[in-house]
Amino acid sequence: MAESSRPTRPSLGQMRSSSFLQDHQQYKPMAPINQINQNIGEVLANQVDDLALNANPIKPDPERVTESGVIHNIFNHHENPLPSGTAQIVATIYYKSATPVHPHYHPDASPDPTAEIPAPTVPEGSAPTEDMDKFPREPPAPEPEPLDHLYGPYVSQMCLTNFLQILESLPTPYQRMNTSHRCLDREEHPRVVEVTFSPPPNPDYLSFPDLRKHESIWRFEREWNVEVVLQQESVFRRHKRLAVFDMDSTLIDNECIDEIAKFIGVEKQVSDITERAMNGELDFSASLRERVGLLTGVPADVFEKLKSVLKIAKGARELCRALKTLGYTLAVVSGGFQPLAEWLAAQLGIDIAVANHLEIDEATQTLTGKLVPSYPIIDAAQKRTLLKSFAAERNIPIAQTMAVGDGANDLLMLHAAGLGVAWRAKSKVQLEAPTRINGESLVDVLYLLGMDNDDIAELTSQ
């Protein structure tokens, strides 16, 4: 046989294309379509194999967290449906826009690159005291990396994804979990996001109170500069009928007894006692008598003068207006004084006002430095008693009650209510309260009831 008639052997160079990447890329581009010579049937027949093997069915992640309308699950939801009636937990995530962990989003963005690193501080609500001098010898543990500075000063997509990962890792033994979310204030760059997940962790391994205080959630809050409020989902979470508020440093920004003390120059002594009492370092009733004793001789018309000094807290009017529109009974229960509690109730449309009564010398029209003995002292136990009596008198289940306060004398009331919120509270109170929020406006409380911005706007416009 002639040499020229032999078949040509394939060479390695003939088996390869000119591009190694083109041969090995995972997702190859579709072959060009000859629109003149091919009809749609031929096109589909030629491309079906390429579509099955090479097309990526997963769309790119959205650039921001938006209303999902779907159930998130790392598994196929239809293969593992949860039985109807499965318990759910609602997590309301607030971004703390008013209290950034660091003064600048990134060290490179600092206007003064030579500025010294801020001194170490104790995170608010993480220890009984924030005074470094009173802290144990060892310094506090290093703060987690502030990830919100990298991914955005809001509840970002990465923040939400991290939270869902933490939820998946909490239950013991492991169980599959379904979650969904919705943005409560705005779709783009939301500050408040509500996440619903089920089933909750097995209470034999992780109780609901322990879940609220779980270290993984605490660290998540520190990393992303957020606060997480956990509630067990039920119809009573969204539909309450009684709201009881503390007055000083809650509905108003002032401490009434401190304002009175300014008139006679004993503000420092009274303020020190007030701070220790609100932190739970002193018995409230004993400290109240001690502070009231310092007010001996103050003119009785001091309450009229104080009304122009008191500053109603941001969002208090909107919160009370929204709740009244929904038919709530509102009460203010204060360790302050009755004349000011009644004035505040009139300002905010509150139905009930209960506070301490100061004794007045009728002859001189001055304060005697004593409390009226026929009225009980409004201390922690009395606040809890009043909450329960208000509910009982109106046939309101305790699950349909809400309490908001900031001091140690509010803790019993907060634990007794269906929803107890420590609002910008003292450190010890934040540690022990069922839930806590440190926002800028009391309107944030409405998000815990499942309302969004549209709901709040409609309620407050009435």
UniProtKB/TrEMBL annotation:
Keyword presence, Transcription: no
One Pfam family named in its UniProt record: Hydrolase
The EC number(s) this enzyme carries: 3.1.3.3
Taxonomy, superkingdom: Eukaryota
Keywords for the protein's UniProt record, in alphabetical order: Amino-acid biosynthesis, Hydrolase, Magnesium, Metal-binding, Serine biosynthesis
Record-annotated active site: 246, 248
UniProt feature, compositional bias: Polar residues: 14-24
Pathway stated in the Swiss-Prot or TrEMBL entry: Amino-acid biosynthesis; L-serine biosynthesis; L-serine from 3-phospho-D-glycerate: step 3/3
Class of the enzyme per the UniProt entry, highest EC level: hydrolase
GO molecular function, one term: magnesium ion binding
GO biological process, alphabetically ordered: L-serine biosynthetic process
GO cellular component: cytoplasm
Keyword Hydrolase: yes
Family affiliation: Belongs to the HAD-like hydrolase superfamily. SerB family.
Name of the protein in question: phosphoserine phosphatase
Species, as recorded: Penicillium salamii
